[in-house]
Amino acid sequence: METSEKTSKMHLGRKISRIRELRGMKQEELAIALGISQQAISKLEQNEQVEDTTLEKIAEVLGVSSEAIKGYSDEAVFNIISNTFHNTSSDSSTLIASSLNYQPSFNTIEKIVELYERLLASEREKLDLLKTK
Questions:
Q1: pTM greater than 0.85 (yes/no)
Q2: Domain that residue 41 falls in
Q3: Which of 48, 62, 75, 122 sits most deeply, having the most CB atoms within 10 A of its CB?
């Protein structure tokens, strides 16, 4: 169990695949943007390790930082999504019925990505300010 946990935490290829899927991008689109074949993307996503230069290029195309790819976890995304639903009713039958019929009027993944991009932009601005001083 420990080994599979450690592997999933460190498997950069799977993380790239998940982020690509969350961004609504197909392997072929990523391949075209990187100037390589779709088969090369498939193989890359099966690799546990990815070279830093390649990771930087992929991160740029996906619109995230390489640190975001390295630190990505499905669990964090699911926690954010599950924490967005709050029921104010004290009736447990209402809670069950309303949670089954809960459909947000926005795409939660897009909102998470949007928030992450705003935070990332803010951090970049801070870095730029530090570099100019």
A1: no
A2: 2-132
A3: 62
